[in-house]
């Protein structure tokens, strides 16, 4: 492939789809042609991008003719149906859904962590590469460099997850419910079963028989696959909080080897994709608003775990934009690795 | 003391002060006389309670004459100044501030946990009893019965704390900022240094040199005092979330002995002050709105920690009203133990 690729975006009208366009523009991702695909409902809708107006096309079996690269974010069932069709048509698919993440032979990639797992894949040949779950990516960008330094034995993670993880309609529901509560109306629940405004709840993904929900199990299983290592023990509690588009995570790490907090801070300062906000003097640490609209994972509250005397424990608090590094940005970075 | 006590409320115009009145009314707490005390700024303000109108009086050295019981919630410096004066005047003081919590000889009480630590104290004799930090109370009501069953070795806790913990003005700031954000205005920060609406941040209490903030250190030290046991290791991460008046906590427990999740659930079902919401089938677990305005600590997500094979670990998610069990209710329950 010497010329710029023909790029298709599947699910372009969704929250992540729209973010794909922003990331492609901001990173000046090269493309010779752009196809904006969505469901029949959105077909025909005009979308202006880089000064040119495109018409959204309905996603069909024939949509991938001539396409080199497709970024999918239209939900698991659309991916299951159309990603293999695209692959068979010679398209390199980067899929943001959970459909193929745990499939053997399909790389699950965080470019800062395991780019080597996709080094055999290039544009010009059909393939599927999976984009991990947002919470997994936001956790692994900062935890992996520490894991390399001191080997993570066990992690205890609690999340503070934004509306955007449940899509654009969930963001609107948070906004609309907030208005309703502020004027004394009963908030209307459509996307979530419970009031979201001025409230929080256990993540809405399906529960497993072991008492963990799907989101929590993804963080565990995807970490093992991305690290190619099933030994680290992980327990997570995933919670939806009334924040728009950036997740936060409180992360407790247990290591094989001692790791001083100052060494950890230096490791994180040098690591790719990370901005430190760790200012104890002015009590300034990462917030979702710091991360919103930005590429990096913001990391702070870096401290040796006071519940241990051996320096083999560390606490951190991180935040990352769910739509960018948690989804669209990571997918485009995967595509960049194939250019 | 045969007749009902003369009761003073110090800081009656604050969020906890107002909740003291509600709890006293709802529990039909006996009183022969009620004195509503606050700063000079609020003096003269009329307050209607149980159909009678009271005038708020300015808190002075002479305010405690004839008072049997005083409930204080006017901040640490007011407590430091006036609680000893009240005690010397023969008043039994229940203090909601942090002023005396760690003072030797002053009991720190959660009635469901350590009522024995105040059994030598009765109305009619001057004393000070400290009410623990809200996050500590909300954690210990559910964790103590599990600790008694299997002995907590280590806890990793992340909090989701409401506005009310920072007072009435903080609740108003959250509401006002939410309105501002929803109409596209820049939110005004007065109580907190950072935007609170649709955001969250590390707890605003002062940071210690060890990288933990005061709130986190309170949860550790107060637990040791309340349990009369310094052995359990505790690390906490305290976070302020845009919720009005109930805290939530994600709690990971490591035990000396194995504890099956079903046994844990039965223990919690029978424990005082707890309501279980642990419905995996319909993904329904405790939320701050469940707890708001209610007395119990709501407990759910009870599951054996998947990061361990020995059943010596458990995860829970709890929520409790910060103004009630986290403050006013617990203080009134302490007072009831002295009746």
How would you explain this protein's 3D organization?
2 copies of one chain form a homodimer. Chain A has 339 residues and is α/β, with parallel strands linked by helices. Chain A has 2 domains: 6-132 and 327-338, NAD(P)-binding Rossmann-like Domain (Rossmann fold, 3-Layer(aba) Sandwich), CATH 3.40.50.720; 135-322, 2-Layer Sandwich (Dihydrodipicolinate Reductase, domain 2), CATH 3.30.360. In chain A, 29% of the residues lie in helices and 24% in strands. Chain A has helices at 15-26, 76-88, 134-150, 168-182, 214-227, 261-270, 288-291, 324-338, and strands at 6-10, 33-38, 46-49, 52-55, 57-58, 69-72, 92-95, 127-130, 152-160, 201-202, 233-237, 239-240, 246-255, 274-276, 297-304, 313-321. In chain A, the strands form 4 sheets. Chain A has a 6-stranded parallel sheet, with helices on both faces. Chain A has a 6-stranded mixed sheet with strand order 11-9-13-16-15-14. In chain A, strands 3-4 form a two-stranded antiparallel sheet. Chains A and B meet through β9, α4, β10, β11 and β13 of A and β9, α4, β10, β11 and β13 of B.
